[in-house]
Amino acid sequence: LSKGFLPKKGYRNAVHIYKVFTDTFKHYIGGTLLECLILGTLVGLGCTLLSIPYAILIGFVVAIGAIVPMFGALISAIICFLFLVLEGNSSAAITFIVMFILIQQIEGNFIYPNVVGKSIGLPPMYVIVAVTLGASFGGILGMIVFIPLMGSLYILAMESANKRIQQKNFKST
Question: What's the pLDDT tens digit per position in 117-156?
Fold first, then answer.
């Protein structure tokens, strides 16, 4: 339909925009899954080193929860904490939550913005802004969608700016 109704230049622009969006969303999914794997592995190894029971299960639950940007891992860690408390192992639960807070600080401030940001070409600060805006506009779904959406818009804006700079430089010489 678009090829039939849009002018040739408009069709090429629409195809380019579509390609940028699909590539960004694909890279975002890959980056998010990599980040989930990293976080789950760190938590599982930390639990193993600290002799916390159910280390692999806890790492897996945290990794699954990390699919939700920034806050999902925290919610899954609270669930794991409650599980350990209900198992009657409150000292392991307290050790786990302290270990998780330390890992989460590193992951939330360095690993997540860099892994996900680099996977979609978005600077880490913009990833944090996208998560904040997404949460305020659409809750959990907004957080998941706004990161690749903002990444796509960032790429398109940078391409447009670079094109304008090249045109100005070419005209001024």
Answer: 678 878 878 888 888 899 999 988 898 899 899 999 999 9
* SS3 annotation, the chain: CHHHHCCHHHHHHHHHHHHHHHHHHHHHHHHHHHHHHHHHHHHHHHHHHCCCCCHHHHHHHHHHHCCCCCCHHHHHHHHHHHHHHHCCCHHHHHHHHHHHHHHHHHHHHHHHHHHHHHHHCCCHHHHHHHHHHHHHHHHHHHHHHHHHHHHHHHHHHHHHHHHHHHHHHHHHC
What residues contact 43, with CB distance under 8 A and at least 6 apart? 58, 59, 62, 63, 77, 99, 100, 103
For the record, the structure tokens of 99 come out as 């270990």
Work out the angle at residue 117's Cα, subtended by the Cα atoms of residues 115 and 150, and round it to the nearest 5 degrees.
150
- pTM summary value: 0.79
Instruction: Output the CA torsion 82→136→16→121 (10° steps).
Output: -60
